[in-house]
Amino acid sequence: MPRKLRAQETLDTIEDEILFTRAALEADPDAADLLPMTDSWLALVDATRATDRTARIAGTSASALRIVANGRLDDACTRFGRTLAIDTPTTSPRWRRFFGSAISSWIEQRLVAQVAAVRAWLAITDEPVLEAHRAPLAQWSEAAQVALDRTAASAQTRGAAQIARESLAEDLTRERDGVYAALLQRAGERSLARDWAARFFRVERRRGDPDAEPEGPPSPAS
């Protein structure tokens, strides 16, 4: 009986399973007419692969944007703080209006909190030093917020990709079982070898032998 496919397997591994079964069916004249039962399988893998790629692109894009925006926002906040510190004691209310700690510590806070703080700064209109730094602070706090939003959206995309993988494994396992049942029936009708139906599915590689290639079931002893 074909093994149960798992969602944790790579799509290449699942595709190899399909390619083996299709090639084996095509090669055996007693089974070749069952090949159409597998015609949709590769398309299922392709669709799942596309969903998986979309999720990876979304996640990587969000991560890259977050890293860039976070770094540039840190730079903008640091430049603003250093300029403000030129004539403002760090114990003064003016300084505390913007920074509750040293700049190097302040920029290490969570990005969502940093964005909220900078956005609050941008509502202030009576600080001349802030005015000189407003443009980069506005630009990179906005970019950081976009990155945070994309990160949240990519989590949903990853969830959809995982569901697609689980559905693929379940659907192909069920359809492989259907092909196996048809092969068993064929073997009975034509008095074929008892293990004939199993030969159309790869077996799992042996434990402790990571370099061994999965193969079809061994031939019966003569």
Automatic annotation (TrEMBL):
This is Uncharacterized protein. It comes from Sandaracinus amylolyticus.
